[in-house]
Amino acid sequence: MKKGVSFLVAVALMALASFLTSAFDPSPLQGICVGINDPKNAVFETQNLVGSNVTLVTIEQFPGLNTFGISIVRINYAPYGVNSSHIHPLAAEIFTVLEGRLLVGFVTSNPGHRFFSKVLNMGDVFAFPVGLLHFQYNIGHTNAVAIAALSSQFPGVITIANTTFGSNPPINPVILAKAFQLDKKVVQYLQAPFQ
């Protein structure tokens, strides 16, 4: 009898405790964004030295993303255009090809420096780990378009060539010559377009 009463009391307490608790998926939505009505009205210029245009949407462009922990980017590629080697120090990236055919890749960090690459076609998806050097290259003779989601509302971006050879003030060419095992004049030649 005592066991039966104890069991009923325990069940009653659990029922009461579960009634007082709740679990939910919080929704930190703070606003709504209305974009352009027709994507054909958007300008995605790819006539530049690298043949690509990156349109990034973070909390700087769209404050409504604050607290979401996400951002998004659209990349347009001219034929043989490249989104050159870069790093997102604060975010991983999931990348989807909307049009065209792209060669994508990333390199692991020290000590292995292992290179992973894949040719992606329309609808293919690829993931770039946080903080690793990566790129995308349009291997087709037509335009390509991709979209990527990043796991931070401000992922940051460090473009390797611009950062290395285009810093302000410039990094001493002697330092870069030693690091890249190049002649100092080659480094100065590489720095010239960025100055």
Give structural notes.
This protein is α+β, with helices and mostly antiparallel strands. It is 21% helix and 29% strand. The strands form 2 sheets. Strands 1-2-9-4-7 form a 5-stranded antiparallel beta sheet, with no helix packed on it. Strands 6-5-8-3-10 form a 5-stranded antiparallel beta sheet. The longest helix has 19 residues, at 2-20. The radius of gyration is 25 Å and the shape is elongated. Residues 21-36 have low confidence and may be disordered.
Total number of strands: 10
Q: What's the helix-strand series?
A: HEEEEEEEEEEHHH
Question: Measured on Cα atoms, how large is the radius of gyration?
Answer: 25 Å
How far from one another are the termini? Answer: 89 Å
Average pLDDT: 84
> Main sheet, how many strands, which sense, barrel?
5 strands, antiparallel
Q: Tell me the β content.
A: 25-35%
The strands making up the biggest β-sheet line up spatially as 1-2-9-4-7
Quickly give the structural class: alpha+beta
Q: List the uncertain runs.
A: 21-36
Oligomerization status of the protein chains: single chain
Determine the number of helices (DSSP H or I, runs of at least 4 residues). Answer: 4
State the shape: elongated
**Share of helix, binned:** 10-25%
